[in-house]
Specification:
The structure is a homodimer of 222-residue chains. Chain A is of the alpha/beta class and 222 residues long. Chain A has 8 helices and 12 strands. Chain A folds into 2 domains: 116 residues, Rossmann fold, CATH 3.40.50; 95 residues, Arc Repressor Mutant, subunit A (Orthogonal Bundle). In chain A, strands 2-1-3-4-5 form a 5-stranded parallel beta sheet, sandwiched between helices. In chain A, a hairpin with a 2-residue loop joins β8 and β9. The longest helix of chain A has 17 residues. The first copy, chain A, binds a DNA duplex (30 and 30 nucleotides) through α8.
Chain lengths: 222, 222
DNA sequence: GGTTATTTTAAGCTAATTTTAAGGTTTTGT
DNA sequence: ACAAAACCTTAAAATTAGCTTAAAATAACC
């Protein structure tokens, strides 16, 4: 197991690092919040141990930024016993566990192991509309695999529910900005998507809004 | 039931042996760590009761050697109440239970019986999916030995069950963070893994999700 | 220090996806 | 109704991602 340890008390950090390494846990340590955040973004760690009081950038800030960017690495917060408020805040922001200082290293080891025994609990973020379920994780629409462009487009349509998505907007988002504006790209892929909707027997149709773009329609609604 | 009891306090050992035998538990006793290890390797015992403080070789060492060699005999650790660190370490190394000295023999009897009623806790460390069993302890997939990288990758796939694991994520975790991004590493090893899946006649296939990563599929599910 | 196992590098190959292009259909304005 | 514009569909060509192998480099082992 490899963890990132962000802590500004060097003496404590050294001791903890040493003890964790005896328990076969590799530790990368930094005393700097910004540096910590940079490292934390790499998909390298099984867990992050995060002190709340840090120079430059507080542990809570780091936690918040990571979670908002979709990072789901298990995080254990550390802080002085008094800072109860922080505990609540931390767990709210998506920390996985909390340990008050001073703590026994064995306790930390036990919690790290506990965290990593259970699989990382990332929630399913399925996009839904009528009888459609799009899973961006593996790019499947009701089980049917989509290509990258197909996926991008259906995602935009699903995110807008039954609002119209402009063709130019799709073009810009899916094919970089400086396209030699080829509306036909979008048309080709909408055509492919319609074929796949038929294939999976969905009742949803992609309606063309002439001059504007496309929108999803559920004929059974209304 | 027959157990191996490794304990250097002869007086205590005699008493415990006597009492256990009255509860219909056969006891082989040794006061020597090395001798104990030799005996423990025989597939002869339903359980091993292991004192931590031993001459020549500590109980934790014995435990570690046994578990690393794949031995799954249930083990109960004994130690003085104070040695809390040892408790954590012991359970981590794969001990099945822990008893602080001094203890009541009836308590030991109860725990031995409990251990032999439930299947060895060890099982849970195996990663399973369909007909696959991966043992990270000795890095074998249904008995077939894997290399380190192969093991890391199959572990990640197994931990994610049938979710897609991104190629970049694998790259980051298996080959350090700042790689000269070589997707081909992952491709080569996935290829090796597929060869091994065929070799062990598993029905599981590693499906490619183009542009994203890989996931395990059990064709017999669905 | 030599042998074996593992990892990295590289290259040719295959298959999937994307782009291009052309001909057909529908809609809209006059 | 007719022409023009917008859109649809399809298939082929082009491109890209991924697969597989084998050889070279490195690490592990005795």
């Amino acid at each position: 197991m490899r963890i990132l340890y962000i802590e500004d008390e060097k003496l404590l950090a050294d001791a903890v690092k040493h003890l964790l390494e005896k328990s076969d846990i590799a530790v990368d340590w930094t005393d700097d919040g910004e540096e910590g955040l940079r490292l934390a973004k790499k998909p390298l760690y099984d867990a992050i141990v995060l002190d709340i009081m840090l120079p430059k950038m507080s542990g809570l800030e780091i936690l918040e930024i990571l979670r908002k960017s979709g990072n789901k690495t298990p995080i254990i917060m550390l802080s002085a016993l008094s800072e109860i408020e922080d505990k609540v805040k931390g767990l709210e922001l998506g920390a996985d566990d909390y340990l008050a200082k001073p703590f026994k290293t064995s306790e930390l080891v036990a919690r790290l192991n506990a965290l990593n025994r259970r699989p990382p609990l990332r929630e399913e973020k399925l996009l839904k509309f009528a009888d459609l379920r799009y899973n961006p994780e593996n790019r499947t629409l009701n089980g049917e695999p989509l290509t990258e462009k197909e996926g991008e487009i259906i995602k935009m349509l699903l995110e807008s529910k039954d609002k119209t998505v402009q063709k130019d907007y799709i073009l810009g988002r899916v094919w970089g900005g400086d396209m030699v504006s080829e509306d036909n790209y979008v048309e080709v892929y909408v055509s492919y998507l319609r074929k796949k909707l038929k294939k999976i027997n969905s009742r949803v149709i992609i309606k063309t809004v002439r001059g504007l773009g496309y929108k999803l329609i559920d004929p059974e609604a209304e």
